[in-house]
Amino acid sequence: MSQPQHAPDGDLDLVIKAVGPSTEGGRLPLAELARLASGLQASLERIALSLSGGTARPGRRPREIVDAVRLDIVGFQTGSAILHVERTGQLGLDDLLGRTLDALEEGILSLLRDPSTLPAHFTSPVINGIRDLTGGISPDGITRIEFARGGTTRFTVDAALQSAIRSIGATPVQQMATVVGRLHMGDFSPAALRCRVDTYAGSVLCDFGPDLRDAVLDAMDEMVMAEGIGEIDPNGASIHLLHLTGLGRLASARPESLDTLARQQEVQPLRSVDELGGEQIGDLEDFMTAIRSARG
């Protein structure tokens, strides 16, 4: 039986070299190390997800994707700030890691040639991650970051890439999303079918097609679960606009009338205001006298 072929270990290991005034003496600011590590790891995971045929969704990325492209810092060399990064496990997934590193390299080189055309697998989340990766590039800090594999520098993060990424603009990410909240402010004019769902985290503006008009109208002022394609702000924390594809009322949250609530709780309305007084308290005067005497 033939054995699966994997790229040589050295071709999967990275040597990352940061150059600039802030690296003098072989140092690297901790904030820049954190930015570099998180930006690189997030970009690898997002590209690997695309290579595997997955789509970005709210929440954590699949564990198998995270494990497949996880890298660890295994050495730090002085001179410039040089980090040695390699795999420490999950060798059976090296094929995906190698393809992900290749896609990252090809995509960055493509952006440098023509930032108006997004490379394959460079979705909006990937672009936003590369934008974070270039955020620390400055003349008085880190001027460039070189990424080498197999002893050869494959690509460089520098002012040129930073400029190319900025020219793309902060594009909202579109992905499937679900929100739960109270449905308010319906606009049912044919030119603009819109509504708003107030959630615990804030309000989400929604638009919808004519096929959902009756469902939105029937659920107005009720708690609902709204599903659709959300335009996620570049910060990844909020939904700019939700294009509704489905809307369901939450039965447990439907308001009940006072008569229904009274029957459920087995209470009846008062027949007379005199019933509010309750029974006569016989020793009230004695109690008040004791209170006054205690006050002196």
UniProtKB/TrEMBL annotation:
It comes from the Bacteria. This is Uncharacterized protein.
